[in-house]
UniProtKB/TrEMBL annotation:
<dbReference type="GO" id="GO:0009016">
    <property type="term" value="F:succinyldiaminopimelate transaminase activity"/>
</dbReference>
<protein>
    <submittedName>
        <fullName>N-succinyldiaminopimelate aminotransferase</fullName>
        <ecNumber>2.6.1.17</ecNumber>
    </submittedName>
</protein>
<dbReference type="InterPro" id="IPR004839">
    <property type="entry name" value="Aminotransferase_I/II_large"/>
</dbReference>
<keyword id="KW-0808">Transferase</keyword>
<dbReference type="InterPro" id="IPR015421">
    <property type="entry name" value="PyrdxlP-dep_Trfase_major"/>
</dbReference>
<dbReference type="InterPro" id="IPR051326">
    <property type="entry name" value="Kynurenine-oxoglutarate_AT"/>
</dbReference>
<feature type="domain" description="Aminotransferase class I/classII large">
    <location>
        <begin position="26"/>
        <end position="378"/>
    </location>
</feature>
<dbReference type="Pfam" id="PF00155">
    <property type="entry name" value="Aminotran_1_2"/>
</dbReference>
<dbReference type="InterPro" id="IPR015422">
    <property type="entry name" value="PyrdxlP-dep_Trfase_small"/>
</dbReference>
<keyword id="KW-0032">Aminotransferase</keyword>
<keyword id="KW-0663">Pyridoxal phosphate</keyword>
<dbReference type="InterPro" id="IPR015424">
    <property type="entry name" value="PyrdxlP-dep_Trfase"/>
</dbReference>
Length: 382
């Protein structure tokens, strides 16, 4: 079974985090915050455990959480989602992605993703026996070229997977790009899978779910997760929303991946989704400031920095420091200077890996003093 970078061995996140722990490095590699989400939500989860929420949840998720997910889609995006049959709760966005791809992709079906692509897309397409086509996102703005996008579709295309806001580049697709994706998906009768785990992590740019565009809802599964928005990546509560015919197929597959997801966390995530608007705004503002701190530090260290519009991540080019291979550098950095980052090439097929050879992704969902210290250490590279 071949994935993006050879076999389905150890993921890059596992590899680099292991090195970071071993060498006590500042881990700007794997995308997880170093500060937990609000204590109030932890208390709700703890009450579930000390109470009676310790046995299997319903396969689709507890109804109060499905209602909270539907209400959140209505409150922020004006989408009408039926909690009874248009929502499935999953074990993180990771399971929702797997369920969506395994539900609809069979041997020889083609799936389009944007490259660099989140690693699990490539792995799941391989597991499903599908053919993975990619459309490049290039610096500086990491938007797809519309002609390249059109050329990627053919009569075997069954699905297009987008990630908006985009990990690892931090870009947010323009509405013209989203409209083009919808129009091409309609023309080729494809399913759209939209991974929006960073929906609330945007810096001065509004997030538009592709499902809100005319003609999109009927063919779109939208995926999100509590991990990023509420800083509980370890809870692994995610979800998919969309029309009943797509959600029920993902739900059917989910039965055989996990059957159901962590019961005690579900009321806590329901509470979190009902947070005041200010919670979401303040979190994004705070993260935006951290992004600035790290961007300035990386610039001062001599890298070319592509400032993100959203997500946890900044992409920087290490070529100006005299390094042409970010993968080699990422494997050496934790020991050499006590900082970890993720090379972009691991999110790419061979050609894309060449194009992104000197690019490195750094996570800024960490305390500002750590970001400053990491940048100081990185300045020793030059
Ligand atoms: N999609 C993207 C783009 C991600 O960056 C991540 C990792 N945070 C996931 C999916 C997986 O999310 P989860 O941890 O909820 O499974
Ligand atoms: N989504 C996180 C990232 O991109 C990692 C999650 C994982 O380790 N699979 O860093």
């Amino acid at each position: 079974l071949l994935s993006a970078n050879g076999d389905l061995g150890v993921t890059i996140f596992e590899e680099i985090t292991t090195l970071a722990v071993k060498h006590r490095a500042i881990n700007l590699g794997q995308g997880f915050p170093d500060t937990d989400g609000p204590k109030f939500f932890k208390d709700v989860a703890a009450q579930g455990i000390s109470g009676d929420l310790n046995q299997y949840a319903p396969g689709a998720g507890i109804l109060p959480l499905r209602r909270a997910i539907a209400d959140h889609q209505k409150r922020f995006y004006g989408l009408d989602v039926n909690p009874e049959n248009e929502v499935v709760v999953t074990t993180g966005a990771t399971e929702a992605i797997a369920a969506a791809i395994l539900a609809f992709i069979g041997t020889g079906d083609e799936v389009i993703t944007f490259e660099p692509f989140y690693d699990s897309y490539g792995a799941n397409i391989a597991l499903a026996g599908g053919i993975h086509r990619t459309v490049a996102l290039n610096a500086p703005d990491f938007q797809p070229d519309v002609n390249e996008l059109r050329a990627a579709f053919n009569e075997r295309t069954r699905m297009v997977v987008l990630n908006n806001p985009h990990n690892p580049t931090g870009s947010i697709f323009g509405e013209d790009v989203l409209a083009e994706i919808v129009s091409l998906a309609a023309k080729h009768d494809c399913i759209i899978v939209s991974d929006e785990v960073y929906e609330h992590l945007t810096f001065g740019v509004a997030h538009t779910p592709i499902a809100t565009l005319p003609g999109a809802w009927e063919r779109t599964l939208t995926i999100s997760s509590a991990g990023k928005t509420f800083s509980f990546t370890g809870w692994k509560v995610g979800w998919a929303t969309g029309p009943a015919h797509l959600v029920s197929a993902a739900r059917t597959v989910k039965q055989f991946l996990s059957y159901s997801s962590g019961t005690a966390f579900q009321p806590a995530v329901a509470e979190a989704l009902r947070s005041e608007n200010t919670f979401f705004v303040e979190f994004a503002n705070d993260l935006g400031k951290r992004s600035d701190v790290l961007a300035k530090g990386l610039e001062a260290a001599g890298m070319t920095v592509y400032r993100p519009q959203g997500t946890y991540f900044i992409v920087a080019d290490v070529a100006p420091l005299g390094f042409d291979n970010a993968l080699d550098l990422a494997r050496r950095m934790p020991e050499a200077i006590g900082v970890a980052g993720i090379p972009l090439s691991v999110f790419c097929h061979a050609e894309g890996a060449e194009r992104t050879r000197s690019l490195m992704r750094f996570a800024f969902c960490k305390r500002p003093e750590l970001l400053t210290e990491a940048a100081n250490r990185l300045s020793r590279l030059s």
